[in-house]
Specification:
single chain; about 130 residues; mainly beta; seven-stranded antiparallel sheet; 1 helix; disordered N terminus
């Protein structure tokens, strides 16, 4: 992982916000970068890991990924931007291996033989969370 990508991960990890006392309960991702981001989210449902994607979160915009109260104590996020004309792209990743499928939307159960590195977001008892990609 390059220094730039590592620092992006740290910024993203520090930027998630749990919104206490909010009237509406959702898991939303906000993209504070200058490029559209493609987001995959996972969780452990007490039996197995489940990952879903891709949600396109517009640059400087937000998108509700899961409407309603959060059910699981932890969620896992992976995101990346499209490749620019120079072949560069930004990645928000961690160290939890889960599966994704490119380029189509997907829902995958299990995490054996998975290589994409998601990062964990502790939700605890909260019902609402906003995660910011910076």
């Amino acid at each position: 992982m390059t220094w730039g990508r590592r620092s992006m991960f740290v910024c993203a990890a520090l930027a998630w916000i749990i919104a206490p006392g909010s009237a509406k309960a959702d898991f939303q991702v906000c993209n504070d970068s200058h490029e559209d981001a493609y987001v995959a989210v996972g969780y452990f449902n007490n039996e197995d890991y489940l990952t879903r994607g891709w949600w396109q979160v517009p640059a400087n915009g937000c998108l509700v990924i899961y409407p309603g109260p959060l059910k699981w104590p932890a969620y896992y996020v992976y995101a990346e931007t499209a490749t620019d004309e120079y072949g560069n792209y930004d990645v928000w990743s961690g160290d939890v291996p889960l599966c994704v499928h490119w380029p189509n939307q997907f829902e995958i159960t299990g995490n054996s033989s998975c290589e994409t590195q998601f990062f964990e977001i502790e939700a605890g008892e909260t019902e609402t969370m906003t995660f910011r990609l910076e």
